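Collaborator request, handled under Task 6.
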Amino acid sequence: MSAVSLPSQPNLRALRTTDMEAVMQNELAAYEFPWTEGIFRDCLLAGHGCWVMLLDDKIIGHGILSTGAGEAHILNVCVAPRHQGRGLGRYLTGRLIDLARWHRAERVFLEVRPSNPAAIHLYESLGFNEIGRRPRYYPAHKGREDAIVMAIELLPAGD
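Structure tokens returned to the collaborator:
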């Protein structure tokens, strides 16, 4: 009989300042207009939920969640490009929604670029709906790009 190797399962833990190099490597690889290290540090200082996603003890993604006043805002979701297409973005976003629910948020908001159809499809499949636009929200190669504002209403845990 031969041993069967099961695929590893991702897990989340709180972002540490010592994770910044790996987080920035993933952010720079994934986005044309990445966040800066300073933005991540500001999120930590502000007390936002800052999480890293690990697979086999390696940081392969991160997510930032702001909560307050019965609402949550997903500020950043990133999966390293070499790990994309495996459902890890769905896993990470789902855990951020779970954390929002744990913080008693009644709805979760996020912004997404219209030029990112894969992310739009993911968010729609999780129950997010477009509720508006933010004109010229994102930097782009030729000026600015609008943001699609999406939201999902959360039911209390156990419902």
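The cover message to the collaborator said: "Helices lie at 20-30, 37-46, 88-102, 117-125. The first strand starts at residue 11 and ends at 14. Please let us know whether this matches your experimental observations."
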